[in-house]
Amino acid sequence: MEERPLDGISPPGRIAAAGEGIGQDELALAARNHGLPLEALRYEVTPAGLHYVLVHYDIPDADPDTWRLTIRGCLRTPLELGLPELRALPAVTRRVTMECAGNGRARLSPRPVSQPWLVEAVGTADWTGVPLRVVLAEAGVAPDAVEAVFTGADHGVERGVEQDYRRSLPLPIDEDVLLAHTMNGGPLPPQHGYPLRLVVPGWYGMAHVKWLRDIELVDTAFDGFQQSVAYRYKQSAEESGEPVTRIAPRALLIPPGFPDFMSRTRVVHPGPLRLAGRAWSGHGAVVRVELSTDGGGVWADAEVLPRGGHPYAWQGWHADWTAAPGRHTLLVRATDSSGRTQPLRAPWNRGGFGNNLVQAVTVVCH
Questions:
Q1: What is the pairing mode between strands 92-99 and 79-81?
Q2: Residue 201: is it exposed, middle or buried by C-beta count within 10 angstroms (0-12/13-18/19+)?
Q3: pLDDT tens profile 181-237
Q4: Radius of gyration over every alpha carbon of the chain, rounded to an integer in angstroms
Q5: Nearest-CA neighbor of 69 among 189, 11, 10, 153?
Q6: Does the global pTM surpass 0.70?
């Protein structure tokens, strides 16, 4: 459907006032959209129920017997495929780390009011499906096609605009982009896009359109809400900004020891500890992970494990530390092969996107 204005129920995006706490609307979003429990970083492949979830509107009700994917627009032969037809096509599996573009938003000051992620909006899964290139080759891409527009079955209102969730990608499509029907060897769970979703390795989660029902090839750049308004790096509401695309480097620490219930402060006993975690980037392999155990005064290199044949998945890392009695602040940061490094100051923008500020973990040793 065409995007239509709807006044009175959907306020514009805003920045929290000084001292303003998390509101009930943000708490409601946080209850719907869960993050990865950080102790689950121990799993190389995230169990589906622990993988982060962001649902913009409602989870659609999908009937696999009547569901169809339409492929239309600037093509030689428009297609309509059911789930059995897609499953019958040769499939590939890609292990992909997926991260929400708003991961880290709640750590910004002033805080953009939206889903209040800290650092937990991430997960890694084995996605199985048909390379999008295969389907587009069968349909025959016209010479004047410049983008593919993907429409999900999720429908709602955002900042006063009634809309289906829609995003586009430029042509030609990368060979690893998938029409995924399987997650970790089983059917897609409803919250992860059943019966079909797009998987765009290396890009933030907004590009991985869920509940996919339509692909349209167009001869002009798509300017829908999620493309031209929502997911943009900008400092003010007036500027057009730059598009949010690939994932910035990030390293996370598997929480050591055991936690206090409310504060989540970690408690360890004195002696040698192996600290470990995961690191990833959409711009290339992680080539360096650094760890500080004194709040950033001194940094030391951790050992970074190789990708192991999975170029779009996170990498393990570990370092040894001897804990002494007292209070410690552990920091960890990643650098990728493109030279990008996590910052020590948060990169503020109005949408709260791409905040890959280094993680800080408070540890009490007693």
A1: unpaired
A2: buried
A3: 999 999 999 999 999 999 999 999 999 999 999 999 999 999 999 999 999 999 999
A4: 21
A5: 153
A6: yes
d(C-alpha 178, C-alpha 193), whole Å: 13
Task: State both tokens at 64.
Answer: 């696999």
- What average pLDDT is seen over the chain? 95
Give all strands of the β-sheet with 315-323 in edge-to-edge order.
250-253, 271-280, 315-323, 303-304
Q: Chain centroid to CA 280: how far? A: 12
Instruction: Give me 58's structure tokens.
Output: 């409602």
Token reading at 361: 């973990």
Structure tokens, 169: 């990608």
How far is the C-alpha of 246 from the C-alpha of 283, rounded, in Å?
7
DSSP per-residue codes, 307-355? -TT-TTS-EEEEEEEEE-SEEEEEEEEEEETTS-B--SS----TT----
Q: What is the DSSP letter of 84?
A: H
Please, which residues bridge with residue 149 across strands? 168, 216
Q: Does residue 8 surpass a pLDDT of 90?
A: no
Q: Dig out the tokens for 174 from the structure.
A: 């990368």
pLDDT for 161 beyond 90: no
**Residue 10 buriedness (CB in 10 A; 0-12 / 13-18 / 19+):** middle
Query: Integer distance in angstroms from the first to the last C-alpha of the chain?
Result: 60
